[in-house]
Amino acid sequence: GQEKLNCNPRKENGSHVVLCELGNPMKAGAQVTVVMELSVSGLEDMGDAITFQLQLRSKNSPSPSNASVTVPVEAQAEMELRGKSLPATTVLPVSWQRAEGSQRPEERGITLEHVYQLHNKGPSTVSGVTLRLDVPTRLGDSELLSLLELGTEGGMDCAHPPGLNPQQV
């Protein structure tokens, strides 16, 4: 039959130990299968595996049996990218002409602002995330968009693309 084990966590010699009483007395030749579910936090910097040391002690045996179990650790986090353009819709007037050589943005075209937000929905923390946005700057032989500036908030580093503000507007 299946029975719930009575397990007690405690510290021994600076290690976290979970002591489970399997049965007393146990019949000779008895076989026991134990399934344990552990919840462990703070594994972000543990590498790719954690090892549990198991020890089976019996009052009838002078030396304990030792074994170790290595469990792979995988941090999981769900990332969500949101974005919007301000204004949401842009239409150039038919009679509009671009002022060549002008340093004023309003004479070069309509200013658009694209805002992107990257959210970590958990459950783990993340680091070393790379977000790459490809923005079309040309349509055939014509200039479509001219990237004027790039900014970040929230402790992110951003690598500026090589074609940022080529006309120095």
UniProtKB/TrEMBL annotation:
UniProt KW Mitochondrion keyword: no
Name this polypeptide is given: ITA2B protein
Integrin alpha second immunoglobulin-like domain boundaries: 3-73
GO CC terms, sorted: external side of plasma membrane; integrin complex
Example GO biological process: cell adhesion mediated by integrin
Subcellular location: Membrane
Lineage, highest ranks first: Eukaryota, Metazoa, Chordata, Craniata, Vertebrata
Keywords: Glycoprotein, Integrin, Membrane
Species of provenance: Urocolius indicus
Single GO MF annotation: integrin binding
SUPFAM superfamilies: Integrin domains (SSF69179)
UniProt topology in membrane: Single-pass type I membrane protein
Integrin alpha third immunoglobulin-like domain residues: 80-168
